[in-house]
Design brief:
Chain A: This is DNA repair protein rad9. The complex is a heterodimer of chains A (about 425) and B (about 375). Chain A has nine helices and 20 strands. In chain A, strands 6-2-3-4-20-19-18-10-16 form a nine-stranded antiparallel beta sheet. In chain A, about 45% of the residues are buried. Chain B is an alpha+beta fold. Chain B has two domains: about 160 residues, Box (Proliferating Cell Nuclear Antigen), CATH 3.70.10.10; about 180 residues, Proliferating Cell Nuclear Antigen. Classes of the chains: A alpha+beta (about 425), B alpha+beta (about 375). The interface between A and B is medium-sized, with 33 and 37 residues.
């Protein structure tokens, strides 16, 4: 038996409306997790590339809050899933009106009816309006287990923070049809938010028109800006817009935490008992990070890259040594898997003649459409976590990137045979 | 017919096509509308599958000039059989059908602007405007409606500034004569409230995409009126209750509530009138939700609505619409109820009782 009762002020109910609007941009369904002292709305989008968790503090956000999950443990929780649309039809806009006009409510009472002696399980919302109108909604819900995306803020060394109002001005410049957002920290004291769409052409038809909008912001305009210079990180414009617009309703500062492309990024903000976390998948396939990305990961990666020319065994090994990448759409992953070919081709060519240079004609965006002919690379899943493997795509950043690579390659040349032999022995 | 009489049967001039449009738009849920011209005004009626009717009455006071020359009785010889079944006294009044969407299109041919505030800023302070200019005289948005004789088209002439549009709408033979019988003498219940309350409730319930709308009226303990509309759909159910003098609004607010919640300008009563023919019983009628929803336009513009149900369950919604300050018009709807099975009623009953119980519990907490 679950007990869940809480009461919201009109202001809080309006905030619930705002957050549901935001979550509705991520997913059709919203999951609810109620614990003894907090209440969380979560949403995971269909491609599982964006996860949102909005936590309402039991004592701060609610007028009254009571939750006794089924099993009495401190970590016990009640979870269910509902249609965002259904909840939104209950938590409409204009719930809070300082002038007390029609549609404004006096308070909102929510009860969970989930008892064996009752025939129906319902999520009951009661809107008590000022003039004596009471609106009662009984919504069906689905009992589901709620998963959470993990995010380690200690690893995310790159941080920035900016007031949502300012950020909202910037997102207005982004084209409505654009898909990707590249956040780039330049060397010149500016951060660039660039929205763009990959051009997709089908014969003569262009299916997606490339429109690039770059908004350059002085890093001094940020409340906090601590980003490795030259780091590109790419997220979805749609997600970013949804987050900024919601953050703006709270008039708070939006904080971003991330490490390097292909590792998750987190946006975080909150006030008055409402704390919002959005964990987004990032990509960096078409952009480069300069040499100074996290050292250990890079070493193993360059290591494997250098050796993959000769054998795939080492690739397997390095893959094992690395953390598996976060869950991502298959299409992206396969595209990335093929990319090392082009990069590997290009950077050694600058540094020293390489047998792989026969791939040199296949590069840039063409690589995406190539058949998967890199047999040796087929199992190089380890590349997923790579931060710099696309160095060759944008020549601007190639210099520093390839330089490091040559260094590591040199040092690896000595080690490579030994490792390979030992591994072969171990395996066979 | 024409040669013996050049004067039209009916001619009226309105200074505002907008007012006519606003009223007729309320019943715009069907292709054809019946028009009956009488000494008092124009009556438009619209029918939906015989289970819903909408009436809009354009009173002669809406027109600046209204001329109706009742045809002599023999004039309606071809239509006698039809009309005598209906009502004796209106047998000579011309009745015909027209396309309501076309009429509405016609009326808004110059746009739907309110002449009082539609003028662009540069026109408002027009130095050339005199006391006799069209704007001042209210002549810039004229609408003249005329009907020459039986079978002739309904002619609408709209004039704005120097533009004059003449529209002839084909009239058709009347198709139905029977109204949904609503017994005013044996009302089961009646309540009057603000139209926006009803509109709000219906749009609230619409979010559950229900098929049926249940109306519940009764006198709660201590003779407190209770009126509720409920509906249920695939995603859940919703109920909107109207209570007079609800406890929370009369009690002092709990300390946790912000002060803004307590509105000093409290409306006296949500339900202005509340009458039940049999106060001991709970009245419960069910209607098709999509039909009730067709009256939503009227609800949104009405100042007041009178909700009445007769003993047979026929629902009458009468909307008082203020087209101009101090001038009211009425738009009526009638609905035939759905016959409810006992099982469904019992189900609703439990929901209702349970809801009431939790409501009183909530009051006790405070």
């Amino acid at each position: 038996m679950v007990v869940l009762n809480f009461t919201l002020t009109p202001e809080a109910a309006a905030k619930v409306h705002d957050l549901l609007v935001c979550l509705g941009k991520f997913s059709d369904t919203v999951a609810i997790e109620a614990r003894r002292e907090r209440f969380t709305f979560t949403a995971l989008n269909s491609s599982k590339s964006a996860y949102a968790a909005l936590t309402l503090d039991g004592s701060q956000f609610f007028t009254s809050y009571e939750c006794v999950p089924t099993h009495g443990g401190p970590d016990s929780r009640f979870t269910c899933s509902m249609y965002t649309k259904a909840l939104l039809s209950v938590f409409k806009g204009r719930l809070y009106d300082p002038l007390g006009r029609d549609g404004a409510i006096d308070r909102c009472e929510v009860t969970l009816q989930d008892r064996p002696d009752q025939t129906e399980c319902r999520f009951i919302v009661k809107m008590v309006c000022n003039q004596g109108v009471i609106k009662t909604y009984k919504l069906t819900y689905e009992a589901v287990e709620v998963m959470h995306a993990l995010f380690d803020r200690n690893v995310a060394k790159n941080r920035w923070s900016m007031h949502s109002g300012a950020m909202k001005e910037y997102i207005e410049y982004f084209g409505t049809k654009t898909e990707m957002l590249d956040i780039y920290a330049g060397d010149d004291g500016r951060a660039v938010f660039k929205s763009y769409t990959e051009k997709v052409s089908n014969g003569k038809e262009i299916l997606k028109h490339p429109l690039v909008t770059a908004v350059a912001v002085n890093t001094s305009d940020f409340e906090e800006f601590n980003i490795q210079a030259g780091l590109h990180i790419i997220i979805s414009v749609r997600d970013f817009k949804a987050i900024v617009i919601h953050a703006d309703t709270l008039k708070t500062s939006l904080k971003a935490y991330y490490s390097y492309p292909t590792r998750p990024l987190q946006f975080n903000y909150g006030c008055d008992g409402l704390s919002c976390e959005f964990t987004l998948m990032t990509s960096g396939d078409y952009n480069a990070v300069p040499a100074s990305s996290p050292a250990p990961a890079m070493l193993s990666r360059t290591n494997s890259r250098a050796q993959s020319a000769a054998t795939e065994r080492t690739e397997n090994r390095s893959m094992r040594s690395e953390m598996p990448p976060p869950a991502e759409p298959a299409s992206r992953r396969s595209a990335r898997r093929r990319n090392p070919g082009s990069r590997k081709v290009k950077s050694p060519k600058r540094a020293e003649p390489d047998p792989d240079s026969l791939f040199v004609t296949q590069e840039e965006e063409d690589t995406r459409w190539d058949p998967v002919d890199y047999n040796k690379e087929e199992e190089t899943l380890g590349w997923d976590a790579s931060a710099e493997h696309d160095a060759a795509i944008f020549p601007t950043f190639r210099d520093s990137g390839s330089l490091t690579r040559t260094e590591t390659e040199d040092s690896n040349e000595v080690l490579a045979p030994t490792q390979r032999v030992s591994q072969i022995k171990g395996l066979w | 017919m024409e040669d013996e009489d050049e004067l039209p049967l009916f001619a009226a001039v309105s200074s505002s096509a907008r007012q006519l449009y606003l009223l007729l738009r309320c019943i715009n849920f069907s292709e054809k509308a019946h028009v009956q011209i009488s000494e008092e005004g124009l009556k438009f009626s619209v029918d939906e599958a015989g289970v819903m009717e909408g009436f809009a009455f354009l009173d002669k006071s809406l027109f600046t000039s209204y001329t109706f020359r009742a045809p002599p009785p023999q004039r309606s010889s071809i239509r006698d059989s039809d009309d005598e079944e209906d009502e004796e006294e209106t047998s000579t009044n011309p009745t015909f059908q027209i396309s309501l969407p076309s009429l509405l299109e016609t009326l808004q041919i110059f746009g739907l602007t309110d002449p009082n505030n539609s003028k662009p800023p540069w026109a408002r302070d027009n130095p050339t405007s005199t006391a006799f200019s069209n704007n001042v005289l209210g002549m810039n948005n004229m609408c003249r409606i005329s009907y020459d004789s039986f079978g002739s088209p309904l002619v609408i002439v709209l004039t704005e500034a120097s533009i004059r549009t003449t529209c002839e709408l084909t009239t058709y033979e009347p198709a139905f004569a029977d109204e949904i019988p609503f017994d005013r003498q044996s009302l089961a219940f009646k309540t009057i409230m603000r139209g926006t309350w009803l509109f709000d409730a219906i749009s609230e319930l619409a979010s559950t995409t229900p098929a049926r709308l249940t109306l519940v009226a009764r006198l709660a303990r201590s003779q407190k009126p209770y009126f509720a509309l409920s509906a249920s759909g695939p995603l859940g159910s919703a109920r909107v209750e109207f209570n007079n003098n609800l406890a929370p609004s009369t009690k002092p607010p709990p300390p946790t509530n912000p002060p803004s919640v307590e509105n000093p300008a409290e409306s006296p009563n949500l339900l202005e009138t509340f009458q039940l023919s049999n106060p001991e019983t709970t009245l419960r009628y069910t209607y098709k939700f999509s039909l009730i929803q067709k009256a939503a336009r009227a609800m949104s513009v009405a100042t007041k609505v009178s909700v009445r149900g007769d003993t047979q369950g026929v629902l009458s919604l009468q909307f008082m619409i203020e087209v101009e300050a101090g001038k009211v018009s009425f738009v009526d709807f009638r609905f035939v109820p759905l016959v409810e099975k006992d099982g469904g009623e019992m189900d609703d009953e439990t929901v209702l009782e349970e809801g009431e119980g939790s409501g009183s519990g909530m009051e006790d907490e405070e």
